[in-house]
Amino acid sequence: MKGIHLVINTAFTPYGFGLFCGNKCLFSACYGDSRGFSERLLDDVQARCIELGYGLSDVSHIGVVTGPGSYTGIRLGVTYAKLLGFSLGVRVYGYGALDVVAFQLRGRKSSYMVILPSKRGFVYMQLFCSDGTAFSDMCHVSADQWHSVLSKFEIPIQVCGIIEDRFFEWF
Q1: What is the pLDDT of residues 111-133, one digit of tens each?
Q2: CA 66, CA 61: separation in Å to the nearest integer?
Q3: Pick from 12, 37, 95, 157: CA 20 to 30 A from residue 139's CA?
Q4: In what order do the strands lie in the sheet with 122-128?
């Protein structure tokens, strides 16, 4: 049987994991509650593998979101991924949170900005080409700075990511 890939996100909501075979998503789960997710992660991954006709021993690659995001969540996800990777003898790959969002958006007709919330009044932002490659560094900016950056674009730009409603109260 061909190996499957496990990808874990405990850095930002919605928390979750996915099981992939090549480019095909076999299963994905999203959890709004990080406490419940962290307590069920191991059992849920194993149960989904079994439902799909695989065992944990069929996991050939593990990916984990390494931030930015919840400090405790990142520690949990990375620790889980490293322990599972060590026990299975497979490599663990780390992925940036903004890159993970951009990967899901690749193929758009134009460039876009990915943003994720940070502490109150701040966001992480990065610009990506339509193929999902970054053409700026990740920046940590205030709401005012973010608004200033957006106002300097001469053409419309798509803003994608996880945007909390409270962030827009400051404009």
Answers
A1: 899 999 888 889 999 999 988 89
A2: 16
A3: 37
A4: 139-142, 122-128, 112-117, 158-161
- Sorted by sequence, the CB contacts under 8 Å of residue 129 that are 6+ apart come out as 111, 135
The H or E element that residue 82 is part of is: helix 71-88
Question: What amino acid is encoded at 79 in this protein?
Answer: T
For residue range 5-51, list pLDDT tens digits in order.
999 999 988 899 999 998 899 999 998 776 778 888 989 999 999 99
Work out the widest C-alpha separation in the chain, in whole angstroms: 53
Residue 168 has what pLDDT?
A: 42
CA dihedral in degrees (157, 158, 164, 169; nearest 10)?
40
DSSP annotation of 156 reads: -
Q: Is the dihedral of CA 132, 133, 136, 138 positive or negative?
A: positive
| Of 5, 7, 161, the residue nearest 77 (C-alpha) | 7
Strands 15-21 and 4-9: antiparallel
Token pair for residue 49?
């593998």
